[in-house]
Design a protein that fits this description.
Glycerol uptake facilitator protein, globular
Length: about 220
Amino acid sequence: MFIGAGSICADEYLTAAGKPGIGVLGIAVASGLAMGAMVTAVGHVSGGHFNPAITIGFWVTKRIGTLSAIFYWIAQLLGATAAAYLIKFIISEAVWRPVALGTPALATDFTRTHGMALETVMTFLLVFVFFATAVDAKGAFNKIAGFGIGLIITVDTLFGYPFTGAAMNPARAFGPALASRAWQNHGVYWVGPLFGGVLGGFLYDRIFLRQQPPA
């Protein structure tokens, strides 16, 4: 959350100063590298979810209990909120206000239905890859799951950022929305990612992991 939203603020700072911004590519790479690095760093500690959509994929496949899932969600929302307020403290309002602290937003000609559909598909890909790399013991990148996860976040963001902000994560939307009070179309970033997380986790589990016991 801190790096993803912060890179959006950095792009705004540069463009407002008349300098070349980091653009969608820079934002996508920053988001993907940050998630990939952190999953690799703490995946062995907590699973490295960082995202309620990933957690719900674990919950629907009975790889995590209901109480644990609730605590994961609370931690994820608190972490995203803390990150948003830290950005707000570090960066001047003149920089973060035009982009609402990096709060994801729909393009002006993009409907809520289309936004939920795109967030669903992008999050489905993310959770599917997460299961294939971080959960499946036979996965090609099991020991460095963050590599594949970071790549899918990068390519998802390259496509989705201009249309929805490419949140793929309710916590990623919640933190900056709370800190900047930018709640427009906020439900899109819960419905789409959570539905995509359920689909991604359930389908990978049913197709590829049905013979393997839960972790």
